[in-house]
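Input sequence (495 aa), recorded before submission:
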Amino acid sequence: MQFLKNLEVWFIVGSQHLYGEDALAEVKQHAEQIVTHLNNQNPFIKIKLQPLATTPDEILTLCQQANNQPNCVGLMAWMHTFSPAKMWIAGLTQLNKPLLQFHTQFNQHIPWHDIDMDYMNLHQTAHGDREFGFLVSRLRKARTVLVGHWKSLEVQQKLDRWLRVCATIYDQQHLKIARFGDNMRQVAVTEGDKVEAQIKFGYSVNGYGVYQLVDAINQVSEADVKKLVQEYEQSYTLVDSLKENGEKRTALFDSARIELGLKAFLEQGDFHAFTDTFENLNGLKQLPGLPVQRLMEQGYGFGGEGDWKTAALVRAIKVMSYGLPKGSSFMEDYTYHLDENNELVLGAHMLEVCPSIANDKPILDIKPLGIGGKEDPTRLIFTAKTGKAVNATIVDMGNRFRMIVADLDAVDKPQSMPNLPVGHAFWQLKPNFDIGTQAWVLAGGAHHSVFSLDIDADMLRTLAEYWDIEFIHIHQDTKLAELKNELRWNELAYR
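Predicted structure, token format:
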């Protein structure tokens, strides 16, 4: 994620010459103080102050420069004074970067004994932002409105969330996804329009023969394999059969070779997401389990069975949650615990669950897979952390993409499961198992998703709004009748 260090968001202050040069000088001084303070809070992306925007030409130039500056990933617009919004039309109609309307003012409190007309003319966010807000709405332009005083901790936290979304949008526009093999045969939901996805999201999806991956694996040196195995031994609790002189020790070296070859292929092609499938393994000794888990933990997106949409979304959430403590993973609703009034979902996949969500040190084990016709694969086994979480998925509805996000409560496993051979999570659905499950199915939610303990639905809604895709949120107050109506209305809205 080194690219994050080079990104910046531009801070643009709207005003006009009506109030005189002394007033504009004070506006500029206030803006400098705000930006300095925000940057001192160690934001996710650096904030860069731009010259005051006081004329249509200045605003147009700033928006054009933002479009053409590769490391500028968004604009924060603040109306310190009144800024007649017709000045913004030319610039905003051309702006193609995310926009945040920062509804703040310099002073937190009204100076009760000193307030006069000069103060009123200068501190007009309440006034000027409504003019600006109308124009952005009139243009039907997506933006985020952030309300509150700029020194407020809550405001800074909300700003950080928006900055994370900006970085994610930037990354998706530059993302390349490698597919080794095709979709799992006869599966519907993992299919989709890759051309439309590139138009809508920016990322490209291209397929490669498994033999090309095998070529990269065969070029890995024995010394590098041995070094990586030593890293495995330091990082995880190995079962006896994988320890030195263990009967399955060779499989651990095979996994290390696959991981190094896979990573080398991805790095050489500048790919940050990938897919594979157990139906296309020619030349591989085992389906990559441990290698995929470890690459996800390093920030790569992944989708099983050729699911490139989920691979892209895993990468998006990995970028969005970078540096946060609880983790995110490729996931699948696998099986249920139907204890009456305490129904639980066991989330897992046959191998590829990211250890960033692990509650304890993972166990490195080897178990039969039962499908794919290859040697037994290694994998990390663990139980996920607990807390508030989401499952998110993007599906292709034919005439549009739909993002579906479900709120969850991740919980402890009810009992020990000594024979469960995969990393896994347990969760309760909102508002309950019945409605939560029906809502996901009615919305067309995929069996693959991204499970995150760090990201919430509001951040994903902001992402969907910028992409102009449909957004369905399943939450504590979801009612099926209202959801069904929402889905019907959306059919009309997107037709």
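Checked by second reader. The first strand starts at residue 8 and ends at 14.
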